[in-house]
Structures
1.
Amino acid sequence: MEVYALFTVFLVLLALGFPIAITLGMSSLVYLWLTDISFTVIPQKMFSGIDSFVLLCISGFILAGNLMNRGNITEQIIGLSNALLGHIRGGLGLANVSGSMLFGGVSGTAVADTASIGSVMIPGMAKSGYDKPFAAAVTAASSTIGPIIPPSVPMIIVGTLTSISVGKLFLAGAVPGLLLGAGMMATTYYLALKRGYPKEKRATLRELLVHLKTGSWAISLTLFILVGIIGGYFTPTEASVVASLYAFIIGKFIYKGLSIKDLPGIMLSTAVTTASLMLLVGLANVFGWILTSEQIPQKIASAILTISDNPIVVLLIINLLLLLVGSFMETIAALIILFPTLLGVAVAVGVDPVHFGIIAVLNLMIGLTTPPVGVCLFVASGIGGIPMEKVAKAIIPFLICNITILMLVTYIPALSLWLPSMFM
């Protein structure tokens, strides 16, 4: 009865649109009340969930992203992308995708990517002759690249939940991230040709060199982080601090978009975002503890392995489950609740943990753009002032593309494991 009450309250609150952290907390509270377990379990499990050194780097990377974004990073990235690709048919759409690939190395979060790139590109594309639903769909779909290309907040969570190296996960995400970008560029170009979208004036060599010079500072942040971690110069947590310092120097002295007066606001925004994530992590840990005590993970694992122990079939089932969950549940909460269980199932059929980490994160990122609850869809439709239904329809070709890339990454492990095996 208690378990039924747990899931009933969870689903009802989720359907009513409550924040996922509140939903997890309230459903856990109802369960504890019905079972007469002391409410002191809540702070205990919340603290154990966030008591991790690796989690410290979340605030560091969020701070670095805020500093770079306030320091004109978005404009520099979009300017570089336009200079490189604007002259091709559908060039602004291609620049949107490439901008998300470059911005992903700064923010590490899909929603931040959608909001930052979308606020510039959606109105700009509409003004240049693209239909708004397409512009919003490109923005939302390409935002899934951000948490795949390092740094990545979801991968930090995966490393925290398990003994998987965050550095290996960062490296493993590079090739799948590039594949996602290439696939979405191909989709954008095909649709641009089919619909006759415009192309921009070709940038001169001088303009291209200027954009390369100014944009290289932003692009180098991702390389800087990877080289530091691979070379053993600093841990992921230390890398986030170094990245923040780098972002401040670039934003203040190179792009000149930052001022000292901006810092209090940036720090406050970082603190609020970090606190909301930590609250979510803590309450998801309480919910996960309840599921474990009721042996729900074991039942899920047994159910999957009862169907088949063939790795191909098991990974297909897990993909379908994660795509479904990712379409209505926040990524971090889904990882905390499901990842350890599904990792055990995957390892039991011979799947490498690092490879499975990339599969899980990629699934949940695609879920952020999957109707009816995809968060990035809501952000993009809000920026463009477009009905959600139109954006959901326009994003279908990109979902097909992303799921195709997901299948390639799932069944060709070398796409994820090549770089980690080479450097680590």
2.
Amino acid sequence: MLIASGFSTLGFRELGTQPYEPVWRAMQRFTDGRNADTPDEVWLVQHPPVFTQGQAGKAEHLLLPGEIPVVQVDRGGQVTYHGPGQLVVYLLLDVRRRGCGVRELVTRMEQILIDLLASYGVAGAAKADAPGVYVDGAKIASLGLRIRKGCSFHGLALNLDMDMQPFKRINPCGYAGLPMTQLCDHAGPIEFAEVSARLRSQFVKHLDYAEQTTLKGGID
């Protein structure tokens, strides 16, 4: 991946807990409004319970959503669940400027997660035919991107310490009976902030940035 001069720092926004739809709309506005001089950003957030249905999503994969809202979104992939205790990471990157193809970006995202898990003594793996990261065959992280004007948004969701029951109300990522797992079941008690810090370092390393910075301010 090529690093354009002046774009060697990756900015991170720690958003805390935010409703899904306003963050999604903010990602769209950021992407539509950026230009060749806009620095790249990564947003880290937790969402209240929500199912999101990707562009390829089929209604039959929503088994019993019940009281949890369903949002039709513009990322790739099928249906997934977001909820408290899951770290959601949105990649707002100018992939064209960085000389990175979409498949390469997905591969690097998977390796970021695999290396993060390894830092907790957990062996993760990718699957060529099913994007995401798995531990002993169970999915621990989901990926879904959208590319617009050569720039990415959406990103990944890593299960840390959450209520896993809502995954049983869907066919996760379009796979009936796909087992889901979370980091705390393999590594014991974890600190959300520590996972976030480790993940930030992995993003800087694997996406070839020289350094990172914490961005202040909101996303409106």
